[in-house]
Write a structure and sequence with these properties.
The protein is an alpha+beta fold. Helix content is about 25%, strand content about 30%. It has one domain: Ribosomal protein S11/S14 (Nucleotidyltransferase, domain 5, 2-Layer Sandwich). The protein is built from 2 helices and 4 strands.
C-alpha cells in the first residue's frame, strides 16, 4: 500500500448526469469536484460512460497534484421514490480512477 494521503471519491450517477467529488478522509474538505456539464456541451452526453471517464481522469490529475495517492470509492444512485440503479457513468468512472493510479 502506498504511503501518503488518501481521499474518498463520491460518485453520484443518475441517468441524466454524473457527479464526482473527491474529499479528504473525514469528508469535510472538498479537494476536487466535477460534473458532466463541465466536460461536454450537449446535455444528452452528461451521463455517458465516455464523459464519466474524462471526468475521472481530470479529477485524478487534480488530486494527484495535491498529494493524494489513493481513494476509497462511494457510489450513489438517485434512490428514494426514483429508480435505485446507478446510471451508465458509474462503472466507467470507477474504472478510470483505478487506471489513473488511484
Amino acid at each position: 500500500m502506498a504511503e501518503g494521503k488518501w481521499g474518498i471519491a463520491h460518485i453520484f450517477s443518475s441517468f441524466n448526469n454524473t457527479i464526482i467529488t473527491i474529499t479528504d478522509q473525514t469528508g469535510a474538505e472538498t479537494l476536487a469536484k466535477i460534473s458532466g456539464g463541465m466536460v461536454v456541451k450537449a446535455a444528452r452526453d452528461e451521463s455517458s460512460p465516455y464523459t464519466a471517464m474524462q471526468m475521472a481522469m481530470q479529477v485524478a490529475d487534480a488530486v494527484k497534484d495535491k498529494g493524494i495517492v489513493g481513494v476509497h470509492v462511494e457510489a450513489r444512485a438517485p434512490g428514494g421514490n426514483k429508480q435505485r440503479s446507478p446510471g451508465p457513468g458509474d462503472q466507467a468512472a470507477i474504472r478510470a480512477l483505478a487506471r489513473a493510479g488511484l
